[in-house]
Amino acid sequence: MEQRAAIPPGLPRLSPTVSYWQDPPSSLAMHRTSAFLPTSVSVLIIGSGITGSSIAYNLLSQQSAPSVLLLEARTACSGATGRNGGHTKCASYRSFLENVDALGELEAAKIVRYEYACMKAVHAFAREHGIECDSWEGDTVDVIYDEDQWKLAKHAVVEIQKVLGMSDPASVYHFWDTNEAETKYLTPGAFGAVSYEAGSLSPYKFVISVLRLALEKGLNLQTNTPALSMRASEKGWIVETSRGVISAEKVILATNGYTAHLHPALQGVIVPLRGHMTAQRPGTEMPREGLATTYSFIYADGYEYMIPRPQGSTFAWDIMIGGGLTKAMENGLNEFGTTDDTTQDPVIVDYLENSTQAYFGLNWGDDHPAGRVRKAWTGIMGYSADGFPLVGPVPDEENLFIAASFQGHGMVLCLLAAKALVQMMTGENLADMERYFPKAFIITKERMEHNFRGRLHTTAPKDIEVNSQPQCS
After folding, report:
1. S-S: 137 plus which of 84, 199, 229, 340, CB 3.0-4.6 Å?
2. H/E segment holding residue 249
3. Spatial separation of the C-alpha atoms in residues 114 and 435, rounded to whole Å
4. In whole angstroms, what is the distance from residue 339 CA to residue 7 CA?
5. Is the predicted pLDDT of residue 193 greater than 80, yes or no?
6. Model confidence, pTM
């Protein structure tokens, strides 16, 4: 893993695989607010995913808003956000016990509540601003196929409910035994299942709409303008791009897995991981009205995540399923450190293509006459050594800020992280920020010195004892 973490990420590749969400592309895909690149700006944001677009929106919503320029190396929202599964799902119980061990109960509970609040905030923002992004809120289910993972889930939920209290909406879980999982969720052969609140949406439509809102407030968006390098100056930062040089008073890195290309001190601190996604047509025996929940399928050393497209969306009831990392050679080791989203690992794609029928068994039926897979693609995520985002002023640098490394979990982390970063930058409402934003997410010099170990919170220890049962409210 040390060798994979040392690979420089480089710039986003030209001609990446086309995600389901980006076909057809938005009218903003190639947008340039001005024909010429500004030579100076108050705040320069690099990256146009959910993080960068939300930071721009928050900055420009201030009473005395600075001038804001947003650079995107490729088309708008062409990175991780525009390539994910569209799942607004916390799954906080999966990391809670390890977070308690590392951070203590109070901070672990704060992370649970933060993820839940961020999930709710995404859908509330879409409602408030009339964003048509196929926003859906309901339940999700984790179907569990490994005994240790089943014990972990039960024990973790007991501890969450003990720490947060039963009245907290972030602690509400329901457990289903083997027979109930097969009957209710059409998934034979599981140890059981656990359901809880979640949602889904089109992440591309959501972010494009946030960018439109920011543009209305004065954002200068420049797509197909990669930032090549940057250096500190007396007035802030000098950023060299493919189209000219920009002098910025402040720079914000919303570049996730690519961040070390611009700030080499973060090499090995944020490590890229390539993820695979597929969009599949449902089998002939699947419910005609579509599946009622989103899913994850959890086994000993990994998981898949799946959302059915909601009624009223394009290709309603299509199944979006991604994952399969550990099915690749050497448990997916070579997917770490790669930023090549122009290609796919055929082993992972083949596994994902066959996984839907494997999970649903006879409930799947025959494939759709047009074929099972509508589209397959890849995207680049960013992971840190301790499994938490890196948000705030970059240590030992002036006027350089970061919001990156969202662990493939950005849809329930990024929106409020953008708000928190702007509060840190302006110094306004810091007491509010400290109330909701986990201290563990703030970048520090100490966190930058941790050794990268790979993706965390995926396996279960063998020695878990479940001495009490979770409560279902």
Report:
1. 199
2. strand 244-253
3. 10
4. 10
5. yes
6. 0.96
